[in-house]
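May I ask for an example protein's residues together with how it folds?

___
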Amino acid sequence: MNIQEIDRQYIAGTYRRVPLTITQGHGSWLTSENGQAYIDLGSGIAVNTFGASDPGWIEAVTAQLGKLQHTSNYYYTEPMARLAEMLCERTGMSSVFFSNSGAEANECAIKGARKYSFDRYGKGRSKIITLQNSFHGRTVTTLAATGQDSLHQFFDPFTEGFVHVPAGDREALEASADESCCAVMLELIQGEGGVRVLEPSYVNFVRELAEKRDLLVIVDEVQTGNGRTGKLYAHMHYGFVPDIMSTAKGLAGGLPLGATLFHEKTRDVLTAGTHGSTFGGNPVCAAAAVYILSHLDEALLSQVAEKGAFIRRELEGLRGVEEVTGMGLMTGVKLKKDLNETVARCRDKGVLVLTAHDRLRLLPPLNIPFPVLEQAVAIIKEVIEE
């Protein structure tokens, strides 16, 4: 049997895979088993921050592998401590909990918010408001937090204590923010929901309401974080620091690592025994993340913004395009033609793209060379206008 046949026989069928087996990659290029090269505009769904097989990343990871691959969290390790220091110093946050994924980082954020409220007010104040069309993960609790009815099937009962309001609807938000509420949880750009950017005025309203009613503001930066939007984290575009922030995906550039960051008033909410993770802060993953953050400087972030602006400028106004949304190298394109057919045609022509709801989704490596990006965008334009 070939790889695809083995996969279909032995791996749980939770993914609608495309008929393509990737065997290797370098930078913004991936190669299939038959030697076909593709420009990668998905970067493992915003995970491979600097593309495939980045030499510096490999060096950082292998150097740590030669020292220590894992130890339990009973002990201190340098990569975890250095990474926590970097994250806090660059965000203004005060403490970090490390896990393995975005869903876990969001679980930790939810637990942190509820414990903060319990410590301050006691029982009965645990509700968390999220937005319709949001996506926060696939555990039972993070699915409950996710504001998409299509995902609320099969796994009842879901965790209680979440209410979903329409993005931008101030009256619905205010009505839900009653005495049983402890936090509001936002994606500033709804990634899986179609790359929809929240209006700054609405985010300001959320913050003002939260301050008035002593609610925490949790920002889910799983996909928007680590340079993806042209700033280190998306909330920096909005000019505030959240009470709790989650991130993952591109943090370790291809290795599994999640992080939940706590601002000053929530920094000590998680005490000994209230949370934990066997692999969280793993030295190898942490060393990879230290490398990634060390190279996300202002020059690179400025290039991310410029490249994203180029993509949107090139695609806006095409006769086959209804709308282009996004920020930095996170772009959604609503088409007038069949979405899946467009993805397949791009693949046939050597460009790998993603989807999100009703939109084409583009998440290139942050360091994609401009000539390669221009080549990929030209192919996408050609397919859209066919």
The mean pLDDT is 97. The first helix runs from residue 3 to 10. The first strand starts at residue 22 and ends at 26. The radius of gyration is 21 Å.
